[in-house]
Write a structure and sequence with these properties.
The protein is of the alpha/beta class. Helices cover about 35% and strands about 30% of the residues. It has an eight-stranded mixed β-sheet with strand order 7-6-15-16-17-14-18-21. β11 and β12 form a beta hairpin. α1 packs parallel to α8. The longest helix has 23 residues. The chain is globular, with a radius of gyration of 21 Å. The protein starts with a strand and ends in a 10-residue tail after the last helix. The chain binds adenosine-5-diphosphoribose and P-hydroxybenzoic acid. Adenosine-5-diphosphoribose binds next to α1 and α8.
Length: about 400
């Protein structure tokens, strides 16, 4: 079976879905293919923080109704170290900006519903996906649907298939340069049915390692613990997880305790920084996790996908309106400038907050001094806050 569309999109994560939705609003046709089921992508637990600009974009695109009803708007975060808490207030430091805590899978559900409501096409559960002929002006995506060979002919291919996808791997040899960093730790994440421990996120640094208290709703909490990269989840029964969460978030005066509850889900996520350059070749454009991964400490993953899609949509709209290819040609450079700033911020938050087994006594003192400085200087707090709520989408000219 062969179909024809303007933009063929590989991957129904936040990047691919948002692109399809924004293109449709601009009158540009697309088809999304996804190798997992709809149920799987709608229930996969991932990131949860939206920058001010990303939440505004969802609003402007008509996707904000449930986010406003069920998401939480946070005006700050707490950094806790040496058993004391320090709040960083976002609106007062950033000219009124804040963050929205709303699960990535909820964003995914909202966009899928919006696409189907207007007759959009998403093929779930496809297999054997390959991208072809993107060096010329008639690229194709080939795959199997219900076991049958299928094909999408298009003008452009958007590779939105995440870190493990095939689009990045399909670039010809020698085109891409990869930059990466692994960290000597991972996160054990849990979803717990329990009351909220705090009305804002708490990032803690302790001699036992890092912990993060986040949330999904007043009754559903998302908590993380720093663990070893090769940690066996089997070694972490629920009572050990709770004991470590309590130990790593305790305050000096004993006044803080996390309300415990049943753990519904647990898993270990590796920590990695990764970027490929460039993010385009011929008529194949990469966006989101397939082009870059950040360690989750800066809460940037989903936001970077949204920012790439904002650029790609603007470039495709300019091309279809007037044939102007300049924004398409500059797509990678425009994205990467902001991506690298988010990489820097994510690396900095990660190294500032985690216990690194290789650190010398000098490093430990430097790390404590950094936490002390960041929570004590208005200039330093402003630097953290403006990155956390999101740098502007439009970079100033160099
Ligand atoms: N063919 C079709 N779909 C594929 C293929 C393939 N060969 N390989 C992967 N996919 C799908 C995945 O199943 C997934 O649904 O592509 C989608 C990619 O989505 P994400 O991994 O969510 O990536 P992205 O849309 O870039 O969003 C980035 O995801 O991992 C988080 O923290 C990250 O929040 C960030 C966000
Ligand atoms: C989350 O809620 O999943 C979350 C929040 C903040 C982070 C990372 C993850 O830095």
């Amino acid at each position: 079976m062969a179909e024809r569309t303007q933009v063929g999109i590989v991957g129904a994560g936040p990047a691919g879905l948002l692109l399809s939705h924004l293109l449709a609003r601009a009158g540009i046709d697309s088809i999304v293919i996804e190798d997992r089921s709809r149920d799987y992508v709608e229930n996969r637990i991932r990131a949860g923080v939206l920058e001010q600009g990303a939440a505004d974009m969802l609003d402007e695109a008509g996707l904000g109704a449930r986010m406003h009803a069920e998401g939480q708007f946070h005006d700050g975060i707490e950094i806790r170290f040496q058993r004391r808490g320090h709040r960083i207030d976002f609106p007062s430091l950033t000219g009124g900006k804040r963050i929205t805590v709303y699960g990535q899978q909820e964003v995914v559900k909202d966009i899928i519903a919006a696409r189907f409501a207007v007759g959009g096409t998403i093929h779930f559960e496809v297999s054997d996906v390959a991208v072809r002929d993107f060096d010329g002006d008639k690229p194709r995506i080939v795959f199997r649907k219900d076991g049958q060979p299928s094909e999408i002919e298009c003008d452009f291919i958007a590779g939105c298939d995440g870190f493990h996808g095939i689009c990045r791997l399909s670039f010809p040899d020698g085109v891409l340069t990869a930059f990466d960093r692994d960290y000597p730790f991972a996160w054990l994440g849990i979803l717990s049915e329990s009351p909220q421990a705090s009305h804002e996120l708490i990032y803690t640094h302790t001699d036992d390692g890092f912990a993060l208290l986040s949330t999904r709703s007043p009754t559903l909490q998302r908590y993380y613990l720093q663990v070893a990269p090769d940690e066996d989840i089997g070694e972490w029964p629920d009572d050990r997880i709770w004991a470590q969460l309590q130990a790593r978030t305790a305050l000096a005066d004993g006044s803080f305790r996390i309300p415990e509850g049943p753990i519904l889900q647990k898993g270990i996520t590796p920590m990695r920084s990764f970027v490929v350059e460039p993010m385009q070749h011929g008529r194949l454009f990469l966006a989101g996790d397939c082009a870059h991964i950040v360690p989750p400490t800066g809460a940037k993953g989903m936001n970077l996908a949204v920012a790439d899609i904002r650029n790609l949509t603007a470039a495709l709209v300019a091309f279809y309106r007037s044939g102007d290819q300049r924004l398409l040609d500059g797509y990678s450079a425009r994205c990467l400038r902001r991506v690298w700033k988010a990489q820097r911020f994510s690396w900095w938050m990660t190294t500032m907050l985690h216990l690194n087994p290789a650190d010398s006594p000098f490093d430990k003192h430097r790390q404590t001094a950094e936490l002390d400085y960041v929570t004590g200087s208005e200039a330093a707090m402003t630097a953290l806050a403006e990155n956390y709520v999101g740098l502007p989408f439009n970079e100033p000219e160099l």
